[in-house]
# Entry
Amino acid sequence: MPEERPVIGVTMGDPAGIGSEVIVGAYPRIVDQADVVVIGDASVMEEATSRFDPGLTVQAVSAIDEADGSEDVLPVLDVDNVEDVEFGSLSEDNGAASLAYVERAIELATAGEIDAITTAPINKQATRMAGSEHAGHTGMLADHTDTEDYSMMLVEDDLRVTHVSTHVPLREACDLVTEDAVASTIEVTEEALRDLGIAEPSIAVAGLNPHASDGGLLGTEEAESIEPAVERVAETGVDVTGPHSPDTVYVQAAGGDYDCVVSMYHDQGHIPIKMLGFTGGDSDGEVSGVNVTIGLPIVRTSVDHGTAFDIAGDGVASPQSMVDAVSVAVDMA
# Structure
């Protein structure tokens, strides 16, 4: 493969989900950006190409340097760990298979054999059944790369958000809003924005409470944890302000006032992103949006949707988020 093009390893995700079909749908739109190698099961990918793009041939390989993809050839690093997949089915075996693809991708990225990882969706119930202690990709990637300070960044058009916490109960998420956690998230956010090519990032920090506590009338977390974190990081030269009222700051960021919003918990950041990406945006009604794990020693992006078992195998899943995720991986790589 040409050396000047980045090599992107795309993990197949849960074999029973929409991962294989969105990869097939996205491939003609991403093959000109990078050398793409799917890390998954060749038989599942062959089933997907036969259903959704019969003109595309799967090339099963056992090593990255064997891949020789083109517009008509899709290389698959064949982990060969799937039998008799039933689309839309929840199973321990599929959960274990999807974990194996991510582990292999991390090994390849850490060794420098691929320049970035883009992940198709896994199913958290299936991976739990398979014995994983992680709620999703993010914790698994951090654990396997010995990373302590990391965060999830979501990207949709001009709106970017990161999170102090993600997949935890809301009551626990409130307890995780500490000065150190907020400061760390601001710092990894600033570094990631520079990796995305933003020379002088501007960051807004959302409050936890309505109206960012309204001067202490609606809570104390802003004064006790968020304000000190913002001041601490700002003193190092980072352009960061807040806490801002959560009900307006995302609109301001989407309008160009800020390059990113640091969110205090999962839904606070996810809802505005999905309001833009899941209702069309600039993608003619297709689901879009990108999930980036920031703070890692390797590049990882992901689609911003789940396994969609209810439509898996029907050929109606939008590939737009996969196209976007690979594009961001190419930029960062």
User: Anything to note?
Assistant: Confidence is low (pLDDT under 50) at residues 280-285.
